[in-house]
Amino acid sequence: MFAQFKTLPQLFDYFKDEEICLAYWEQIRWGGNVTCPHCNASNPYKTNRGYKCRNIGCQKKFSALVGSIFENSKLPLRTWFAAIYLCTNHKKGISSLQVSRDLGIHQKSAWFMLHRIRETLKESVPEVLGGEGVIVEVDETYVGGKVGNMSNKKRKEITDKLRGINDNKSTVMGYIERSNKIRFKVIEEGENIKDLVRGNIDTNSVIMTDSSTVYTNVGKEFAHHGIVDHSKKEFVKEDVYHTNTIEGAFSLFDRMVIGIYHHVSPKHLQSYFNESAYRYNTRIMNCPMRFEETVAMCSGVRLTYKNLTVKSS
After folding, report:
1. Does 55 fall in a domain?
2. Across the chain, where does the E strand assignment appear?
3. Does the predicted model carry a pTM greater than 0.70?
């Protein structure tokens, strides 16, 4: 039941009012078989403001918005649907300032809304990439501003925090099946590249990396390990050995940060990479298909403002 629209004005024409939006969301979420989000009991009572569970042990009242990213939001579904359309169809993303101007909402509301949408875009149960005969490119990049370019106050805060280590960058791993799926992973404290490669790629795969020594030993665990040595100006060998695809994906993310978001904190970095990966992985879909798939992922996801803004320890 793809909503047939290709532009934002057509989306607003399709979703004329809140009643139509709610009916669309209920169909996407339940498909005509309404279930209680609290106990999963089916066939609830219909009320003026939603539903009431028939289960004697529950009997809670609920609406279709409970247990989704729309729960407790004061913004209409029509605005939510427009934000989902904008976030998933702009190749380099869209800023909260731009969303606030386009949809006529407060910038903080737009920022919170976009983060809740990004929460739906992450892989809930990541599967290993690759397989027998599949080529998977692996590389890492470093994201973050240069400490030397910061103000004296900010530079002191960073260097004090890092105990004199003049480095403010986060390490990010990237894995991509050629002509297929991509995944990014921000490396957290205690994680190492070798274990991440083992955990994300099928050992029957052919992996392609640069000449970094970190891949030398772990590469032996796969069906084949192709290497290109960038230090020798080696970028493509035999039209197969290269890491140009994953490096191009990293470059697209850099353009997204530089051109749209300008600054991404380490705390939310993984969310922005999830957003970039989702758009890449759905690149062959048209606008209605991508929109409907994204909306279908909005159930069972809950991100509160308190959890979003809590300070990292």
Report:
1. no
2. 45-47, 50-52, 61-62, 135-143, 170-177, 182-186, 206-210, 224-228
3. yes
